[in-house]
Amino acid sequence: MTAFAYFPWIWKRYMFEETNSFPEKDESEALLRRNSCGDVEDEKRNGSAVRIDIPPLSRTGEEDELGSCKRFPKEKRKTAVAFVFLFCNFILATLSLALTHERLPDRNTSKPLPDIVLDNVNTQDWALDVSEILIIIMTAVTFFIMIFHKHRWIVFRRAFVILGVLYLMRSITMYVTVLPVASYTYYCSPKANYTSFLLIAKRVIQLVSGFGLSINGQQTYCGDYIYSGHTVILVTAYLLIQEYTPKKFYLFHWATWLASLTGIVMVLVARGHYTVDVLIAYYAATRIFWIYHTMAHNPQLKNASTSNFLSRIWWFPIFRYLEGNVGGVLPKVYSCPWMKVHRTRRFD
User: Fold this and answer.
1) Of 302, 322, 289, 326, the residue nearest 163 (C-alpha)
2) Where does the record place the Sphingomyelin synthase-like domain (predicted)?
3) Distance from the CA of 110 to the CA of which of 169, 287, 327, 346 falls in 20 to 30 A?
4) CB count, 10 Å around CB of 324?
């Protein structure tokens, strides 16, 4: 009888205690801690199972506010930093043009360079106005789409930093190599034949006040050829529209693509740029945009490693700062920004 008295203890000791890997309730709760946004953080990793909470979906199929806070935080301060980055580089580009104008080759002795496209097209001065009108339209449409996107703060800072990188690169390329004026008829302000702080500051203010456009009469300085700013804006606007609107809006995508292409062609017809300026601008804008969004959509590419060659790009630290907390591809969900109770609509 004594041996049978110990049997329940032996059975519990060897059959349950050694194989039971599930933590008690208190231990399971100790493994998990939530931050202010509701994110689950692992405090202790000892081989036990860790519970991951998946945010529930609403009847429309979109994440609730807690899930949105987890994956796509607004981080307005980062958006402000991205805007300052863009603004500073835009000022730098205008400063570069103000200095380049004084280094411009004399139009009386230096003729336009041979260009396979420009040499076979009849120049039309009005075409530059058409191009800049299309730039204004494309910019307005892009801004409208971004402001009504549910995750507008993320979209805006992506646009700001991409354009900021492109303007920074353009400010360097236009200054290091100055090409002769491509047009025979475009008006260029006379050179001052000297440089001073007040002169350059006056030119920068004039260029900034006109947003770098010629249609308002504020852009009368020449030499900003490599590479085309018109092409950068048109291509980037189209890429943003295509990325942040549903695929089923294909007619809208084709219309914006045609508008961008027309604007680029009009720049060449007006001899506002050499063909090489347009090609370099297209290549730079598309590659920066695609590289940025490839890294943004793949969390493993947000970390620097020996196998991640994209992390060697000079602007990778900026990207990592802006996108470190963004969790994946942004859903195509829209909401009104000035309503207290946001009514969202999903188009995916």
Assistant:
1) 289
2) 222-294
3) 169
4) 12
Question: Which residues are CB-contacts of 14 (< 8 A; sequence separation ≥ 6)?
Answer: none
- CA distances 280 to 141, 178, 196, 214, 332, Å, are 25, 15, 32, 21, 31
* Alpha-carbon gap, residue 218 to 348, rounded angstroms: 43
Structure confidence at residue 343 (pLDDT): 56
Rg, Å, the chain Cα set:
28
CB 295 within 8 A of CB 289: no
Contact 186, 272 (CB under 8 A): yes
Smallest CA-to-CA distance from 85 within 152, 139, 160 is with 160
Q: Is 119 a catalytic residue?
A: no
Express each pLDDT in 318-330 by its tens digit. Answer: 999 999 888 888 8
Give the pTM: 0.77
Q: Cα 296–339–163 angle (5° rounding)?
A: 30
- Dig out the tokens for 37 from the structure: 């946004």
Of 273, 297, 342, 348, catalytic: 273
230 is catalytic: yes
Token duo for residue 183: 């047009």
Helix intervals (H) in 270-346: 275-297, 316-323
CA distance 166 to 227: 10
In this prediction, residues 1-15 reach a mean pLDDT of 47
Of the candidates 101, 119, 230, 348, the residue annotated as catalytic is 230
The active-site residue out of 277, 293, 297, 348 is 277
Closest CA to 321 of 296, 298, 297: 296
- SS3 breakdown of the chain: % helix, strand, coil, rounded to 5? 55, 5, 40
pLDDT in tens, 131-148: 999 999 999 999 999 999
Q: Residue 319: what are its φ and ψ, rounded to 5°?
A: -60, -45
Token reading at 335: 């909401």
Residue 63 DSSP class: B
